[in-house]
Design a protein that fits this description.
Length: 402
Amino acid sequence: MCSTRKYLTMRTDNNLFGVTMKTVSCLFGLFLVVSLSLTMTTTADEPRPAVEAEMFPIPDGTIEELFTFINTVKMTPPEERTQEAVVAHLKAQVKAVVAVCDRILKLNPDEPQQLKVLMERLSGYSVLSQVDESAAKRLNALFKQYENDERPAVVQLIGGLRLQKHASEFFRTSDAAQAKFVDDLFLFIDAHGLDQRTVSIASSLGEALEKSATPQLGAVVYDRLAKALMKLNNPALESQVQRMQAIARRLSLPGEFMEVTGTTAAGEDFDWSAYRGKVVLVDFWASWCGPCRAEIPNMKAQLKKYGDRGFAIVGINLDRTINEYQNYVDREELTWVNLMSQKESERGWNSPLAVHYGISGIPTAILVDKEGKVVSMTARGGELNRLLAELLGDVETGDSEN
């Protein structure tokens, strides 16, 4: 698939403890907590690699100097990239950070510094818990120790880390549990506001649901996240809010009517109502997109096979120039209507319909039934063929739905 993705300003990709991960960062300068692609676990009884004892010797210094050392430790990459070496390095980092936190507490830190120590410790165990069972136990113990703490920063940190932990288990739970988690996430955001952790949890969840069997729940996530971002009244986030609303609009299409408006590549107004009563493939594509071109032969074959039974294609072209589009159409002898703005500023990914539906990857093939309702968001290849046989009858057997 040819794609583009505009990321939320508050979200980044980074290295945590030297391991590349999808970032879930916090405004308090915590570890960048993410999911590792490692599955091995260890126990407290297993021998510690010798590297832990010498990799990060703890220096003397002031509280601020020790916090600076913590940041240095966290950003130190492993020398080897094997699974065993990465896990050993991660353990050494967390062990060093916890030891520095203990030293800081002996220097009579003030309350903000105490909170920072707690945040560093919680975040370290949160990262390590993904590969180390004993760290998960320490993390749960810290959760229990501070579960009744009323300081807003602690409440927000503990709650955010709990949500993050549950998010990692999201797709192993029931549909009802998934819907409840989404509600819990946004109730938490309503109560405590957005920070980079909750923004990243929500946006990552939305992206995952976008590609899942339940995209409608992804629409709920994007819509609620957009509304939460709007409350910040930050003009810099306006384009991201609009994009999330557009993605939510697209993910809400299954079972609903699809609006298709615009101008054809020939410069004529498009009449969507003329297609009512037909099964229509709405295809977002471009001539420069290899996967799009690969779909064309089958689309032509299905149009020849089912055209007389009420199948039609409407293309939404994302080429940058009319010449690029027209040269390809002429060469491949495409016969169906394509929408393409006459304005250069509304071509490519800026195509009005692509923007309206938050299209970030092509081909995006959406199938609309005779009533004008969307029946598939992935009508490509064999899936298109199957759906056409179901909706219009199997040509091979002579069955017909007409």
